[in-house]
Specification:
Layout lengths: L3 E6 L2 E6 L3 E2 L3 E3 L2 E8 L1 E6 L2 E5 L4 E4 L3 E8 L6 E8 L1 H10 L15 E2 L3 H8 L2 H4 L7 H18 L4 H4 L10 H8 L6 H7 L4 H12 L3 H20 L3 H4 L8 H12 L7
Antiparallel strand pairs: 1-2, 2-10, 3-9, 4-9, 5-8, 5-10, 6-7, 6-9, 8-11
Keywords: DNA-binding, Transcription, Transcription regulation
GO molecular function, one term: DNA-binding transcription factor activity
Protein name: AraC-type DNA-binding protein
Length: 267
């Protein structure tokens, strides 16, 4: 059975699964708070991997790429709640509370785990809306988001500089970024946005930096990593082709032989 994602109201999402489920690459455009009701989420990002265990609250900053694998609990189910702290709601909150940010929040972890009983209780208060025992109105959604912001700032006051920084992503080092993110199978326009560039600017800088188009370079880089994993790590393509951004195994085998002139079993 595939994982089910249900939108309770426009910024509150409930996900459940009854067997191991691999998610697709996701671009995280807005900050969100999540709570693992049952099971585990293994999240893969540019800096490595993090495990979101049962009864854990996690804050995920915006503008990043994440891939997930969902593992049900021993009782047989996976449940995860997430509430989006969207830019519009944060702008309203900042204006009403006269909050301004002069310094950018320093680069840090891709996920922040919050051991906070108030935040856990906040998510437990949302469970009636999953069962539809209460109706989630737009006004209630706004109140819940405001409550989430209050609790998050209470738990981590310096998050003010992260939540209320409404500046556009700054232009970052393209070479370092691509070597960290080449395995994510997302549109080029998403990569451009994450590096602080327009699509045309990204393509221009990319060709200047790598001497190839993004499509060509990504394919070559992924195949090089695949060759390394097969030859030096004795891994099987079926175990890693999705992790390297290939959409299907047959396409990977064809591309590998086309580049190296041999099959994977001949390496």
């Amino acid at each position: 059975m595939e994982a089910k994602t249900e939108i309770i109201f426009d910024r509150f999402v409930y996900s459940c699964a009854f067997e191991k489920y691999r998610g697709h690459e996701e671009f995280i455009p807005e900050h969100f708070l999540g709570f693992q009701l049952s099971g585990e989420t293994h999240a893969f990002h540019a800096d490595g991997q993090a495990v979101i265990g049962e009864n854990t609250v996690v804050f995920v900053p915006k503008n990043q790429l994440i891939r997930t694998i969902k593992y049900p609990s021993r009782e047989g189910n996976y449940q995860f709640l997430a509430i989006t702290l969207d830019t519009e709601a944060l702008r309203r909150y900042a204006a009403e509370n006269k909050i301004s940010v002069s310094n950018r929040y320093p680069d840090g972890p891709k996920l922040f785990f919050r051991p906070d009983e108030f935040l856990r209780s906040f998510f437990v208060s949302l469970t009636p809306y999953i069962n539809r025992t209460k109706e989630a109105t737009p006004k209630l959604a706004d109140l819940k988001i405001r409550e989430a912001i209050e609790l998050l700032l209470q738990s981590q006051p310096d998050f003010k500089n992260l939540l209320f920084d409404f500046s556009e992503p700054h232009k970052i080092d393209l070479q370092a970024f691509m070597h960290q993110h080449y395995m994510f199978n997302v549109p080029v326009v998403t990569l451009a946005r994450l590096t602080g560039r327009s699509l045309s600017g990204f393509k221009r800088d990319f060709t200047k930096t790598f001497g190839a188009t993004p499509k060509v370079w990504l394919k070559e880089r992924r195949l090089e990593e695949a060759h390394y994993l097969i030859k030096h790590k004795q891994q099987k393509p079926a175990d890693f082709y999705l992790d390297l951004g290939f959409e299907n195994l047959s396409h990977f085998y064809f591309a590998f032989r086309q580049k190296y002139g041999v099959t994977t079993s001949e390496v």
